[in-house]
């Protein structure tokens, strides 16, 4: 008997027992929905991370974090008594500051720079920016410093454009406040940013000493990047100079750019060997760490789905045994007419496959319906508008449905064998 | 030609052994109509099952067209039965939830007949039994007589050389039974097929070319009809 004819007969048999078929499939659908949603959430989370990390940094860069043992922190940073808010910090030499702040010294930077494959090393520079002069007054603003080849979401220049001293890239969000209608119109114009002169006195309400700097607009930045304080992006050189003027402490983070043609892993290992105790992490490492967390959560959820499917497998076995019992005479007739054992077994296996596939399709359909709640989920989790945390992948859905069909076939193995082994004479005598 | 040679079939173990057929032998020429007659429990059905390869006697040979079907593997016997034989049962065994078309189509599907040919043959078989208008009707909506006609259509659709009928009129009234019997004989005559009817209806048996009378698992007598193929 042809497989297609067996499959059609299997489908017809199931239609004749609609309620039983649907109920058994629904049991499978519970697990299928759980697994499909776990996969969809994993896809969404990975997508979110990729966008987040992608916007944050350069894929050919390695971050080096200074890790300070807790006992050293206690010894060097904790003040010996109450600090006056209007008291200027004492001038400290670089070696002392490095120890106190847990930051990297110039010597550390030079050592890393000497490692083959390192193209550039930059500090992570923090700035205390207050405002920008707008068309009708000052607007609150935050600025940050370009490090490495961040994916800046630039508009008007290539994404890997390196800002020069005196240049600034401006978020689209500020164009109107600055009196521009488009990025093209803004490019070439100047903008004045105001910085806090004494950030260390931030606790005092009368801390209003500012200094200003003018920058030439060379690019726009898409609104997406605003979540990383990239409202105004300035060059590393300018950032370093302003941070020095503000007496901002050196941070404990370095960004190491890797030259093209060098293996990221090898260079990372060399930096790690040189700076034992510090945390050396590439974008890839970061991806992997975050993906691992997502995967763990995803596999956990999938585990629950798998348990539900395991429970439903017994439903399939039960349904198929009942089907064999109910159709004993039919099986006897088919065998009397010359249907081979393997075809009889196939008929019942295909029935099980239909039940599994139907359960899978119902599960995927329910999961697709749940994805309609994406805007609500994004709202509850305070994610950006348009973020889809549940993303059903067509290939995964097809694999899921096929896998469930296979699982159901395995579940239907013993009932199918029972049908195949039925004695046709006995079967025809059954009342 | 069907040659039944010294068939013995027993059931049960040593303590509860029951001999259903004992040293049964006879020969049926091609195209003959044969009635296997006897009382209930005499072994008629067991003999039919053995001749069709549904059951395997412990001893003897069943040679059909020169091949001993008892020497074939199970798959070979199934294939042989699908190609050469068919059945009509007392209880019809039609699938109530399937249409008449689907019921009749089953033997063709088992024999890997392509879809186009199937449609033609099913139509022809249903016409032969007068059920062409019921092609799309569910079998459960047919009367008893119509169900048996449907069973005959299913039996003849693949043009078997041997047609077994196990008490084909047992569940029918006299008039309907006669029509059904007429259809079976019509097919046998038209196609030159061997018709083997298991019955305890003497009147029906008398219509056959040959009668094999079974008593307690043994052949009591083989009778040929005057002018019949075995006369």
Structural features, described:
The complex is a heterodimer of chains A (about 425) and B (about 230). The longest helix of chain A has about 45 residues, at about 285-325. Chain A is built from 15 helices and twelve strands. With about 425 residues, chain A is α+β, with helices and mostly antiparallel strands. The model of chain A is unreliable at about 75-80 (pLDDT under 50). In chain A, the strands form two sheets. In chain A, strands 3, 4, 5, 6, 7, 8, 9 and 10 form an eight-stranded mixed sheet that branches. Helix content of chain B is about 35%, strand content about 25%. Chain B contains seven helices and ten strands. The interface of A and B includes residues 2, 12, 333, 341 and 425 of A.
Helix and strand element order of chain B? EEEHEEHEHHHEHEHEE
List the uncertain runs of chain B: none
How much helicity do the residues of chain B have? 25-40%
Per DSSP, the total helix count of chain A is 15
* Biggest interface and residues each: A-B, 22 and 27 residues
* Main beta sheet of chain A: 8 strands, mixed
Q: For the largest sheet of chain B, list the strands in their spatial order.
A: 6-7-8-3-9-10
Supply the helix-strand structural class of chain B: alpha/beta
What is the subunit arrangement here? Answer: heterodimer
Alpha-carbon distance between the two ends of chain B = 15 Å
- The sequence of SSEs of chain A as H and E is HHEHHHEEEEEEHEEEHEHEHHHHHHH
Number of strands of chain B: 10
Structural class category of chain A: alpha+beta
User: Considering DSSP H and I runs of 4 or more, what fraction of the residues of chain A is helical?
Assistant: 40-55%
The gyration radius over C-alpha positions of chain A equals: 33 Å
Per DSSP, the total helix count of chain B is 7
Gross morphology of chain B: globular
